[in-house]
């Protein structure tokens, strides 16, 4: 087998896509895998997949701002057809904008979200404005690299590009319920100067990437901090499969001097010298023993009966769909309440809005009834409070009642964080990590929905997309079971911790 020294410089230019170029900016090994072993990538987690799906929907909506635009509908696999279709539309002076246009230059193929035909200053030939649509609510540095490679390819392909812009959601836009105002929903920011500056060294960054993918072996890049920025690399599991379970990069949170420690030969969490400053959580992970604070019992005893255990499930539509909401505003669609009237005796109530109308009014009314006026309301994070505050803001007539509910909230999360640790937490205090460690007989493994991101996705599918009532009903049941487990988890966590506190 040849090694990298025996490979001569390329005589052909490997074809990369825009996304592969961006992968290569993170790591040459990653772009090598993208070309040769895409099947080694971990599939996107449900939250990432939901963001990708939402990005697609937002991209399609954004096109509505350019009436008369033509979509190059050929898929990414139909490259030659897409290039030919784009070329034919480019020469049609009646087309005001092209969506998903395909362009190739220097071995890089890009599909451009929106290319708007604009006139140059008087007497100049027609020119184009490059627009990249992002589902984010603001411009990020990584977006400039995205635009810069497109700028490089378009200029190289002979187009006269006068501006490079990012189009993203305006989170201050309020949907009034009577049709989307696309001009207000989207913000367009001109990033031409920054993109031109970034574009100056594209070819010097592209060439070593193209050489890397021509090798017979991946570049010898060690996984490290760069694998998580600007995105989580999907090859992390593959690259770290032979690392020890207590590998130093598995330490949660940032650690000052990590690179230097690795250079000094520190490979595991156990090897970290005692003088290194660690956060409280990192210290617990390093100690790797069960720890019970002497004040755990006292902290648990501050709860008042009847104890309600409350959890919301929410959706955060990028394109607002309920009146008086903004992009990405969390909308509660479901709640569960386990009510423990006295230690060990509980009952359950819940609510799920299973149609496309605004869920908030009915949800709030039934929630207030379920929570009554007495006892603590156990939650697991400040999230429930933030949702209640939004509801209080939305419905002035019941604001005092909602505010009284907020005053009764009792957060189990800081009680555990400050008073208990188990090695099985692995440095995470999420309820999914904490529950099986404290209550081994209970977890989420038997549920059809096991994660909040999936719950949001499935809710969206149930009320907005799915037409088959049998499927809708199975989603409804799975959602109810999932939310119920979250509040049962709090009941059992309080009980399990009580036992540990003696
Ligand atoms: S996990 Fe890290 S080292 Fe491996 S391909 Fe991704 S970025 Fe490169």
Task: Please write out the topology.
Elements: E1 16-17, H1 18-26, H2 28-36, H3 46-62, E2 70-71, H4 79-90, E3 97-105, E4 108-119, E5 126-134, H5 141-156, E6 161-169, H6 182-185, E7 186-190, H7 192-199, H8 202-214, H9 236-239, H10 258-263, H11 280-287, E8 291-292, H12 296-300, E9 307-315, E10 331-342, E11 345-352, H13 360-371, E12 377-379, H14 383-394, H15 399-407, E13 409-411, H16 412-419, E14 420-421, H17 431-438, H18 452-465, H19 469-501
Helix pairs in contact: 1-2, 1-5, 2-8, 5-7, 14-15, 17-19, 18-19
The protein binds iron/sulfur cluster.
Question: How much of the residues is beta strand, in percent?
Answer: 15-25%
Q: What is the radius of gyration? A: 27 Å
Number of helices: 19
Mean pLDDT, as a whole number?
Answer: 92
Number of strands: 14
Describe the structure.
The structure is a single chain. By secondary structure, the protein is of the alpha/beta class. It folds into 2 domains: 194 residues, Lambda Exonuclease, Chain A (Alpha-Beta Complex); 206 residues, Ribonuclease H-like superfamily/Ribonuclease H (Nucleotidyltransferase, domain 5, 2-Layer Sandwich), CATH 3.30.420. It contains 19 helices and 14 strands. Strands 1, 2, 3, 4, 5, 6 and 7 form a 7-stranded mixed sheet that branches. α5 links the parallel β5 and β6. α2 packs across α8 and α14 runs antiparallel to α15. The radius of gyration is 27 Å and the shape is globular. The N and C termini lie far apart (64 Å). Bound molecules: iron/sulfur cluster.
In brief:
By secondary structure, this protein is α/β, with parallel strands linked by helices. The chain contains 19 helices and 14 strands.
């Amino acid at each position: 087998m040849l090694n990298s020294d025996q490979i001569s410089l390329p005589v052909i230019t490997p074809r990369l896509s825009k996304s592969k170029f961006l992968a290569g900016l993170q790591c040459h090994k990653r772009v090598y895998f993208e070309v040769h072993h895409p099947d080694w990538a971990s599939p996107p987690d449900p939250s990432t997949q939901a963001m990708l799906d939402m990005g697609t929907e937002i991209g399609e909506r954004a096109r509505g701002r350019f009436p008369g635009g033509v979509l190059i509908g050929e898929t990414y696999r139909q490259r030659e057809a897409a290039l030919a279709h784009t070329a034919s539309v480019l020469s049609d002076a009646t087309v005001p904008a092209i969506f998903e246009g395909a362009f190739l230059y220097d071995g890089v193929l890009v599909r451009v979200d929106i290319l708007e035909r604009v006139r140059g200053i008087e007497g100049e030939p027609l020119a184009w404005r490059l627009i990249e649509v992002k589902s984010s609510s603001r411009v990020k540095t990584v977006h400039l690299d995205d635009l810069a490679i497109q700028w490089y390819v378009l200029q190289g392909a002979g187009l006269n590009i006068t501006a490079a812009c990012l189009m993203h959601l305006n989170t201050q836009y309020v949907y009034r319920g009577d049709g989307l105002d696309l001009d207000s929903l989207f913000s367009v920011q001109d990033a031409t100067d920054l993109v031109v500056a970034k574009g100056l060294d594209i070819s010097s960054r592209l060439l070593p990437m193209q050489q890397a993918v021509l090798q017979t072996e991946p570049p010898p890049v060690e996984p490290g901090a760069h694998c998580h920025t600007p995105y989580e690399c999907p090859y992390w599991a593959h690259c770290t499969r032979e690392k020890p379970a207590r590998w130093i990069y598995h330490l949660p949170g940032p650690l000052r001097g990590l690179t230097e420690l690795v250079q000094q030969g520190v490979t595991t969490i156990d090897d970290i010298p005692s003088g290194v400053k660690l956060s409280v959580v990192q210290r617990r992970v390093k100690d790797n023993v069960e720890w019970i604070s002497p004040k755990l019992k006292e902290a648990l005893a501050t709860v008042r009966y009847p104890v309600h255990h409350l959890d919301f499930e929410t959706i955060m539509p990028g394109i607002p769909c309920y009146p008086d909401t903004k992009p990405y505003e969390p909308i509660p669609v479901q709640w569960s309440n386990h009510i423990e009237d006295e230690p060990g005796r509980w009952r359950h109530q819940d609510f799920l809005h299973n149609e496309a109308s605004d869920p908030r009014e009915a949800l709030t009314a039934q929630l207030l009834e379920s929570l009554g006026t007495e006892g603590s309301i156990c939650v697991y994070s400040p999230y429930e409070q933030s949702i209640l505050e939004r509801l209080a803001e939305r419905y002035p007539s019941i604001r005092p009642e909602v505010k009284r509910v907020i005053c009764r909230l009792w957060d189990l999360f800081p009680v555990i964080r400050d008073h208990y640790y188990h090695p099985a937490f692995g440095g995470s205090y999420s309820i999914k990590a904490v529950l099986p460690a404290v209550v081994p007989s209970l977890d989420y493994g038997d549920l059809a929905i096991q994660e909040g991101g999936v719950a949001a996705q499935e809710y969206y599918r149930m009320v907005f997309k799915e037409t088959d009532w049998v499927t809708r009903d199975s989603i409804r049941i799975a959602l109810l079971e999932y939310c119920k487990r979250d509040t049962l988890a709090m009941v059992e966590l309080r009980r399990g911790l009580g036992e540990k506190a003696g």
